[in-house]
Design goal:
This protein is mainly β and 287 residues long. The chain contains 2 helices and 26 strands. A hairpin with a 2-residue loop joins β25 and β26.
Length: 287
């Protein structure tokens, strides 16, 4: 039976710098958090001519959660002051646990800018339980080739990034159970995914258009399902070629206070994060 939809949230434009604009579908005025899912940003495809100059988000701090980048087109370059430096290619995913505090920078790689092309990504913030927020940062890089296919049928091309699904295990590790599946469904094809009762379950439509449990949903929209509904089926009918990201996770039943680049449990912890960054306790990082 089909799971009840609570919200269909439009990803509205949000300036994250003077020049960079993303589509933010979580949080919104209608719905804040599906903890552990705190933020969903979609950086739409942006064309870079060959030989374009550097275009990066310069070093900035994070604490208390894991920013996760899903590379859709092009190639990004990540650096942090925990010693990680990695290029992230289309079809791959990077997971950076900020823990007690990290500085990082991100943007198109020099190699990509030299050749030019389209640059597009999703970035999600995965929360972690309070017991882990003070731990040391660490990093994971997952290649698309390591993600096993799921829901296999003609015209359906989906792979498992993390979690357990169809007796398969995704390679990305998290502090709490999170199932993440992404890929594309060709026009006029259908697929049914299943959710666990009590889990927060989301479906982000990157582009194209689908019917989800009978509701029409277009690109840049996030579907939030009723986690208490006993039904489990997420039925997707592609009205056109569609890329999507499916997420389902055991809720973290703790208070959430998110501000700027920090996700903590109390306002006092947020204030402390600002103070620590101001006092240089996050360290340094060249851009």
């Amino acid at each position: 039976m089909e799971k009840k939809i609570l919200h269909v949230l439009e990803g509205r434009e949000k300036h994250i710098t003077d020049t960079e604009v993303v589509r933010q579908s979580l949080p919104t005025m209608q719905f804040r958090f599906a903890n552990p899912f705190i933020v969903l940003h979609h950086m739409p495809a942006k064309y870079f001519a060959p030989g374009s100059p550097e275009d990066r988000l310069h070093p900035h701090p994070h604490r208390g959660f894991a920013p996760v980048t899903f590379m859709l087109q092009g190639q990004g370059y990540h650096r942090d002051n925990a010693g990680n430096a990695m290029t992230v290619t289309a079809g791959d995913v990077q997971w950076m646990f900020a823990g007690k505090g990290i500085l990082h920078s991100e943007g198109p790689s020099a190699e990509f800018l030299e050749k030019g092309g389209n640059y597009e990504l999703l970035q999600l913030w995965f929360n972690v339980p309070a017991a882990h927020k003070g731990e040391a940062p660490w990093y994971q890089y997952i290649k698309g080739a390591e993600m096993p296919p799921v829901a296999e049928k003609e015209g359906v091309h989906l792979t498992l990034i993390s979690g357990d699904y169809e007796n398969k295990k995704g390679p990305l590790k998290n502090f709490t159970p999170i199932t993440a599946i992404w890929g594309n469904v060709e026009a006029a094809r259908e697929v049914t995914l299943t959710a666990t009762r009590g889990y927060w379950t989301l479906l982000y439509v990157i582009d194209g258009g689908v019917k989800v449990n009978g509701t029409s949903v277009s690109g840049y929209h996030l579907v939030v399902f009723d986690k208490e509904d006993e039904q489990s089926d997420i039925h997707i009918e592609a009205l056109e070629n569609t890329r999507l990201l499916y997420l389902s996770a055991d809720p973290i039943n703790e208070p959430v206070v998110a501000k700027d680049n920090f996700v903590m449990n109390t306002s006092a912890e947020i204030d402390q994060a600002f103070e620590d960054y101001k006092n240089g306790l996050f360290g340094t990082l060249e851009k």
